[in-house]
Write a structure and sequence with these properties.
- By secondary structure, the chain is of the alpha+beta class.
- The protein has two domains: 4-85 and 109-153 and 282-310, Major capsid protein gp5 fold; 165-280 and 313-322, 2-Layer Sandwich (hypothetical protein PF0899 fold), CATH 3.30.2320.
- The chain is built from eight helices and 14 strands.
- The strands form three sheets. Strands 3, 4, 5, 6, 12 and 13 form a six-stranded mixed β-sheet that branches. Strands 7-14-11-8-10-9 form a six-stranded mixed β-sheet. A two-stranded antiparallel ribbon has the order 1-2.
- Strand 12 and strand 13 (299-312) form a beta hairpin.
- The longest helix is centred in the middle third of the chain and has 29 residues, at 135-163.
- It is flat and about 80 Å long.
- It starts with a helix and ends with a strand.
């Protein structure tokens, strides 16, 4: 009787990379912020792994070579994005009086493209013979998670630069980073219904709508402290019984929310507010995530990579809240 793991190892064909990558990617679709569970796997997982939140805040779209732009001093691929024109607006005028002449130009933002690569995972094929599961699927799953986690790190690092330090002004020249105890409307600590309403006003102050609020799952549990007067008896009962799952699609006060387990990226008590994607920036995929599998003699090498370009082009489209006392 043949060893099923050996059969998998020996059955490399030209479509293997595409099939294996598609199988893992398809398993990541589904409910919002799906956690990759251990169902159907013949091994014990040690912790939850989660798909990226950047792609939920700013959904990416593919881009072709013909859509790229050139730079004078570099061969790197870039794209110039046209930004909305701001002008003085209309005025009332008497009859027979012409309006002022106003010259205008189209401001642009720059999107730079760069690769993200996973480590190269190497294994002797003979050491795979006693595995009951397809180790390649596990490695692929981890590589894809690692790449999207790197995307998430980049988003938060850029957001922190834009909002600036607590108590100071952000890239807009106005306040974009708010903290309890410093800003009176943010209360003395924690998140109650009054603080939450104030949070929703900040992006609206820039004439933007709230696209999504991002926080980690521990911070999100503050919603479970809201009493029935704030959320109603039915929702309070559901959250008491089901926790955060009781919120359903995580739309709170008309604002979609993303709860992430990545507290090493989004710290406890920190909440980011992002505008809707078309008022925020761009996320392009020049080369989508690919799995590379290579066998040479008795060595199996696996890695994953992508080439993307992304950026926040409207600096007014992000705010940050610190509800830690």
């Amino acid at each position: 009787m043949s060893n099923p793991n050996t059969d998998l190892i020996e059955s490399f064909d030209p479509a293997l990379n595409e099939q294996l990558t598609k199988r893992v990617l398809d398993s990541r679709n589904g409910e919002r912020m799906e956690k990759l569970a251990a169902a159907g796997e013949d091994y014990i997982r040690t912790h939850i792994r989660e798909s990226g939140f950047f792609r939920k805040i700013m959904p990416p779209r593919p881009i072709t070579n013909s859509e790229l732009d050139r730079e004078l001093d570099s061969d790197r691929p870039v794209r110039f994005e046209e930004l909305e024109l701001n002008h003085k607006g209309a005025v009332n005028l008497p009859f027979n009086v012409s309006s002022d002449l106003e010259f205008f130009y189209g401001p642009k933002g720059l999107i730079e493209f760069f690769p993200i690569k996973s480590p190269v995972f190497q294994k002797n094929v003979n050491e795979l013979r006693n595995y009951r599961h397809d180790i390649r699927k596990v490695v692929t799953e981890h590589a894809l998670n690692d790449i999207e986690t790197r995307e998430d790190f980049g988003l938060i690092a850029l957001a922190d630069v834009i909002v600036g330090a607590s108590g100071g002004n952000g890239a807009t020249g106005s306040r974009q980073h708010f903290k309890v105890g410093v800003d009176s409307e943010m209360g003395a600590g924690g998140m109650d219904i009054d603080v939450y309403v104030e949070m929703k006003k900040k992006l609206e102050g820039f004439r933007l709508t709230n696209g999504v609020f991002l926080m980690n799952t521990k911070t999100a549990k503050e919603f479970e402290k809201f009493d029935s007067l704030a959320v109603g008896d039915e929702l309070k009962g559901k959250m008491f019984k089901e926790g955060l799952k009781g919120i359903g699609d995580a739309v709170i006060g008309g604002v979609p929310h993303i709860f992430t387990i990545k507290d090493d990226i989004v710290a406890d008590g920190i909440i980011y507010g992002f505008a809707e994607p078309n008022y925020l920036g761009r996320f392009y995929i020049l080369e989508d995530i690919k799995l590379h599998v290579e066998r040479k003699d008795d060595q199996l090498k696996m890695s994953a990579s992508e080439v993307i370009g992304a950026g926040i082009l409207n600096v007014a489209g992000v705010v940050k809240f610190d509800i830690n006392a």
